[in-house]
Amino acid sequence: MIAARTAMRSKAPRFLSALMALSAAVVLLASQARADVDSFFGSYAGSAEVTALDGTKIPRDMSVEISGTDDGFRVQWTSVTYRASGKISEKSYEIDFVASDRENVFAAAQRKNVFGHTVQLDPMKGEPYVWSRISGETLTVFSLFVDEDGGYIMQQYDRTLAEGGLNLRFQVISAGEVQRAVETFLTAN
Length: 189
What we know:
The chain has one helix at residues 2-38, and strands at 42-51, 57-69, 72-82, 88-99, 105-108, 111-112, 118-119, 129-135, 138-146, 152-162, 165-174, 177-188. By secondary structure, the protein is α+β, with helices and mostly antiparallel strands. A hairpin with a 2-residue loop joins strand 10 (152-162) and strand 11.
């Protein structure tokens, strides 16, 4: 009995040391991920002409704000479409991202589960599966939708740092083919 207690006591400091080292590694990874995304923080706006499937050009205003959160970062974006009929359509989105187990890959924190933890949405329920990554000077946000037939639609927003703002490239990909693409420059505000 005494030998078992002695063995447990000698393992406790090693366990605590390992736990502290693991905690320090998690904090270091989170701070490194935060440092990488900090260079994107700011508000940006611009305009583009989107080519519709029928070939007509549709003007669109776009803006994005990228900011820090307690445990990651937030991307908020808005697009305003001006139709020839005079109809104006505005869509806004906001997604928080947190570090994942992969370097420079971030999970969307879109909903809280019953335990209060942020989790991804469920693409099998028609909800988008969203994640982001930083590759060099580009922050990319991916949104994957699974349609009723089991096919997919992928939206990809590449925001690349540039002098005075961001270069934006937006693509919609379905069945491996680009259905629509928009490129423009967003000026830093």
